[in-house]
Amino acid sequence: MGLVSSLLVLYPSHYGIALFILGMLLIAFLISGIFTRPFVEILKRIDLMKAGTTGSVPDNVPEELEGIIRAFMEIHEDNLRQIESHRRFTSDVAHEIRSPLTALRGSIEVALRRQRSSEEYRDVLQRSLDEVKRLQGIAENLLLLSRADYKIIEMRKDWFDVNELVQEIIDRMRNLIGRKGILFSEEYQEPLEYFGDRVFIDQAITNVIDNAIKYTPEGGKIEVRTSTDGHSIILTITDTGPGIPEEEQEKIFQRFYRVDRARARTSGGAGLGLAITKWIIQSHGGKIAVESTPGEGTTFVIAFPV
């Protein structure tokens, strides 16, 4: 009423004009409320995000701004997932580094407790060297994955024979295959020329075959086959190991993930090999899949497009 009285005092002969101005002010107030209310809701959602929650989208928000609010919420939830992933990653790195360091320190402390023979010292040094190599492997794999995340790795592609590469990899592992008494069969389809980074593809295939050898029991069987369907070069690796439960099969490509942590640690695995393998294959436009039956064995299928 104070505003109305002021307008009537200023414009006593223009009562209609005063009412018009009052009406315009009222309309402006209502319109400002309509336009600002959604933004107020957005600010409320931002406050909820700061508190660690997202809440839900209010019902009275226009469709256009509802999309903005949902986008904010999705970005926030994605950030929370990434933060949690980094926390797990940091924890896993610390754990993986601590294990060989603990073993290294234990060996040295035991060796220093009393005078030992040269053979005993040689044994300690050998075990220490093994742990250092394990640490070096973890560091190199972490560096590779980090560079891959930031897309700063340059692929050096050239033509090479896939069959020849697979045979070279298997030849490097003949001693281990022989010590475990594994029946190893190979089947190659000629010719299989591929344009890719031979060094990285060597690493990817080596990781898969190495896992097959590690987890196949003594006297078990491993089959390696190469083929093509006209669209892709296909490498199939089948073992008679313990197998992987269905609910674990997608997780094995995650960093530091291992189906059997205790067993993997005794075999020297850090849970990074398959993550690196998947990145290498996908970087070449390829795919890797796993089929497994617990108690029977596992098959990895790698396909590179041609």
Furnish the topology, listing elements before pairings:
Blueprint: H1 2-10, H2 15-50, H3 63-112, H4 118-149, E1 158-161, H5 162-172, H6 174-179, E2 183-187, E3 193-196, H7 198-215, E4 221-228, E5 232-239, H8 261-266, H9 273-283, E6 287-293, E7 297-305
Parallel strand pairs: 2-4
Antiparallel strand pairs: 1-3, 4-5, 5-7, 6-7
Helix pairs in contact: 1-2, 2-3, 3-4, 4-9, 5-7, 7-9
Q: What's the short story on this structure?
A:
Helices cover 58% and strands 15% of the residues. The chain has 306 residues and is of the alpha+beta class. The longest helix is centred in the first third of the chain and has 50 residues, at 63-112.
Q: Which CATH first-tier class of the largest domain would you pick?
A: Alpha Beta
At CATH level 2, the architecture of the largest domain is 2-Layer Sandwich
Major sheet summary line: 5 strands, mixed
End-to-end span in angstroms? 82 Å
In total, how many beta strands? 7
Strand content: 5-15%
When the domains are counted, the total is 3
Which superfamily, in CATH terms, is the homologous superfamily of the largest domain? Histidine kinase-like ATPase, C-terminal domain
CATH fold group of the largest domain = Heat Shock Protein 90
Can you list the strand order of the major beta sheet? 2-4-5-7-6
Discrete helix count:
9
Given as residue ranges, the uncertain stretches (5+ residues, pLDDT < 50) are none
> What value does the Rg take, in angstroms?
32 Å
